[in-house]
Amino acid sequence: MTQEPLQRVLVTGGAGYIGSHVVFALQETRRFKVISIDNHHNSHPESLARVSQIAKSNLPANATAQDKESTEIDAYQADLTNEAQVRAVFEKYGKGGIWGVIHIAAYKAVGESTEIPLTYYQNNVGATVQLLQIMSDFECTRFVYSSSATVYGTPPHIPIPETTRLQADSPYGRSKVMCEQILQDLTAAEPQRWRAISLRYFNPAGAHPSGLIGEEPRGRPGNLFPLLAHMAVGRVPPDLKVFGSDYPTPDGTCVRDYIHVVDLARGHLLALDALAPGSRIFAGVAADAPKIKAYNLGKGRGMSVLQIVEAMRKATGFEYKYEIVGRRRGDVPDLTADPTLAEKELGFKAPNDLETMCKDLWNWQTKNPKGYGQ
Ligand code: WQD
Asked: Is residue 373 part of a domain?
């Protein structure tokens, strides 16, 4: 049986927490040749070596040379704000040489973005505009964009449908809104050329069940899940602070829609396939209308901070002691997705439950007590 040739796909931020799981999801299919661009600002090159190792170990006995080729990653350490570096990567594969791009690389700390907004706009917006221009020059016009639930700001309704107005309330969230609007304008200007999907992540959590790849933030984690894991494994002092218990939520602490990172990663594969010619998600769209859609990637189940602490206590056996302190700037009471559009149009599913997220995170952390740095 003749095999379809591998499709080259560029993943920006491919060495990161989300990126490495997306690269794994692509390699799992053995349909893609993955290229990664990452400046390792918040990632480790070791992650991609391990992704490739998992893919190789999963090869069937009758693997073809092409199957083996699909487990090799063309990884480039480069900065997306450096035009020459990015252009050099595209030059290597020539016009039409890269089938599509999954753009994940971005700075993503809400609080930090309020302190250094220009850095966020340059890295998250400027670099995206430059990437799209280079893609256009090289006839690469399929784009999956890593957006975020933070584009909804404080949403008027829970769960949140994609039709909710976008009104972020941090430079980070606004950088995501701006990029979604840039994609709207680009696809409207060239509806016959461009196809794009924005994926609005809710709260990714957990790790690949192999325990070989996982979240490894530089320094003390700001996000709740990795912080709880670092505390339980003794990497940071267990001085857990709960940011506010006076929110209009069942137990007064913030509610978020946590989704297993493996499920989130598979959503990118579905989005990539939905950009192929003849895709049903654009079937009803007029030829001269923009080919762009946005989808929530969440479970549709909100969990509070205290529920997460309790779930991690059960998974790790660590007796967390916490102090309720004031609210954190930029936090909103509840971000819970309405996931039905992605389920209906992309066939997206997020079957892994909270217990599995905690178990897989803890498996990663205990197998890698110092992360990739050991
Ligand atoms: C979750 C809840 C905190 C730490 C993050 C990113 C955002 C997006 C999604 C990419 C909040 C509370 C936390 C602590 C706490 N990523 N908390 N004590 O803020 O929902 O969003 O992931 O798009 O960019 O910032 O996640 O894990 O930081 O916080 O009480 O020490 O846990 O207040 O309510 P968040 P988080």
From this structure: no
Q: Angle 191-172-87 (CA atoms, 0-180°, nearest 5)? A: 55
Two structure tokens written together for 320: 């967390």
- Is position 357 within any domain? yes
State which residues form the domain around 274: 7-367
pTM for this one?
0.96
Instruction: Say which DSSP state 239 is in.
Output: -
* ipTM of predicted assembly, 2 dp: 0.96
User: Residue written as tokens 């989005």?
Assistant: 271
Q: By three-state DSSP, how is residue 146 classified?
A: strand
Specify the number of domains making up the chain: 1
Ligand 1 pocket, residue 200 CB under 6 Å: no
For 182-217, write each residue's pLDDT tens digit: 999 999 999 999 999 999 999 999 999 999 999 998
Which CATH number does the domain housing residue 233 bear?
A: 3.40.50.720
148 Cβ closer than 6 Å to some ligand 1 atom: yes
Catalytic residue among 120, 172, 201, 247: 172
